[in-house]
Amino acid sequence: LHRCLSHIMKNAKDLCKKRLEKHYKFGMHVFGLLACSSNLKDFDGIILSATVVFKSPCSGPEVQKHLQNLKLLINQ
Length: 76
Hints:
It is a single chain. The chain has 76 residues and is mainly alpha-helical. The protein has helices at residues 2-19, 24-36, 40-55, 61-74. The longest helix has 18 residues, at 2-19. It is globular and about 40 Å long.
């Protein structure tokens, strides 16, 4: 399992550097949250919030809500 996680995080690093240059650290923290999820409910919530934040073409109340959710999880 350790090797698989290290490969996942290496791929996440490459992806974040390529797609999220300005928000690299935030992207890596989100991948870290996913990797550390202990159940599917938490994992699903992180996926939902990340999808809303990273795929929305513009900011709005929904994006802000999910961004705040991710920030709270990162700072726990």
